[in-house]
Amino acid sequence: MGKNKFVVLVALIVALGGFLMGFDASVISGVNKFVELEFDLTKLELGFAVASLTLTATLAMMVAGPLSDRIGRKKVLFYAAALYFVSAIGSAFAPSYIVLVVARMIGGLGVGASLIIAPMYIAEIAPPEMRGRMVSFNQLNIVIGISVAFFTNYMILQLGDSSASWAQDLKFGEYNWRWMLGLEALPAIIYFFALFAVPRSPRWLAMKGEYGEALDVMKRAVDEEEAEKIIDSVKQSMEEESHQKKLPISELFKPALRFVLTIGLVIGILQQITGINSVFFYAPMIFEQSGIGTDASFSQAILVGLINLVFTIIAIALIDKLGRKPLLIGGVSGIVVCMFLLAYGFNNASYSLTNDSITQLPADINREQIAPLSGQVFESDISFKEAVRGALGEDIARQYESELITASVSMNAWLILIGILGFVASFAVSLGPVMWVLFSELFPNWIRGLAISFVGLVNSGVSFGVQQFFPWELENFGSSVTFLIYGIFAALGLIFIVMKLPETKGKSLEELESILVKT
């Protein structure tokens, strides 16, 4: 096998961890509606069922690096694959809300580990001229995983309505959400066994003093002379690192780093507080609020995944040509416009049931109980849902919320679709990939690892909050106000980017340090 082919094959196998991460994170979007009813969840409980994965992923991100230094990158990836499998099976067979949350949290450990270790391993085995493209496989696989999760959710929903005997025997209709979650076990098994074809990281081997094996692995990726140079440089780097003291976190808050730390925190918070994970984790729920129905909401979620994939590829192609700041200005401007568009679309909606629309409702809805609402016009989704709960009771109103909204809403559903897809495209071409590039460039060498860990932790914390409270916000604030809040945060972030963010394209890390770090 040629050396380039070897590197590409290894990178593709390791990057399957990114695919599993994206799949695991987004498959829950199709599950929300069904588990809410099955386990009779409050909106905050539903939010935690979604956000619990991010909670343990954050914990895993903090320990995965040191653990991989101790036992090896490859072994941690094996554990991550096993955790994904256990999570998928545990979630699929969960008999209660608590078991479902525990299974999701187990999956979160796999997410956090693979998010940190997969790109680290790829960077350590790829030659310098291929490193950027090979590491980008992981980000690309995350996006592909998100897209595949939206697609498989839709297919399982369709199979649930199929008259095919095999589909009925497998009970896709009765156990739809369990199939959605359990399907992840298949790629987890593939990932686990594919990792046997991957060698141990040459840098880790050198760290452990196993220079002979490290050189053998490196020679499979580059020519012998280059391999020897790389292993020698690792030895030298290890000797230098052994003389360095471990930095306390207080070093981050020194005046010299105030500017770059502020940029890192603002961009890290902005990436999540504009609501991207509300879309990835709750896409069908959002589309159902526009009155298009459950099937259509799942099919439109597939478009979210595809748009995310296409514009991520565009961002990778443009980031070194246009620069970081132009992409951020253009993308965040698009986010502002789309969020205000969504707020406008939902604010202009009205809800009114007619005698004809009532007759089209599912048979389980009592016609006599709902009849008093006929002819009444409600100017917000909150007031309409409150009236329906008062007429039908909490359980029936929640079970048939999508059908009731579809029967009553008057709004421009195309406006909502354009707003959501435009938001995802704007995010994917800017805040999605650019944030991590900026993190790797802003902070000086001597504190980069600690700084990225800190701002990454803040980013994950904001992500957890967005996922946790989104269903509660929809119920208490309504769709219009929720998206307006995201739009306001995006507008404030845009002002900061225009006024304060420096362009880092084309400058060496040492140049950036001399410009940005005030000594």
Feature tags:
single chain; 519 residues; mainly alpha; Growth Hormone, Chain: A; two-stranded antiparallel sheet; 2 strands; 1% strand
Task: Report on the architecture of this protein.
With 519 residues, this protein is mainly α. Among the domains are: 1-198, Growth Hormone, Chain: A (Up-down Bundle), CATH 1.20.1250.20; 350-410, no CATH class. Helix content is 76%, strand content 1%. It has 27 helices and two strands. A two-stranded antiparallel ribbon has the order 1-2. Helix 2 (16-26) runs parallel beside helix 7, helix 5 (73-92) runs antiparallel to helix 6 and helix 5 (73-92) packs antiparallel against helix 9. It starts with a helix and ends with a helix.
Task: Summarize it.
By secondary structure, this protein is mostly helical. The protein has 27 helices and two strands.
CATH superfamily of the domain at 1-198: MFS general substrate transporter like domains
**Structure class:** mainly alpha
Strand proportion:
under 5%
Show unreliable segments: none
Rg (CA only): 25 Å
Largest sheet: 2 strands, antiparallel
How are the SSEs placed, and which strands pair?
Layout: H1 3-14, H2 16-26, H3 32-38, H4 43-71, H5 73-92, H6 97-125, H7 128-160, H8 165-169, H9 176-182, H10 185-194, H11 202-207, H12 211-219, H13 224-242, H14 258-273, H15 276-288, H16 294-318, H17 324-347, E1 350-351, H18 355-359, H19 367-370, H20 381-392, H21 394-399, H22 401-408, E2 409-410, H23 413-428, H24 431-442, H25 448-476, H26 479-500, H27 509-516
Antiparallel strand pairs: 1-2
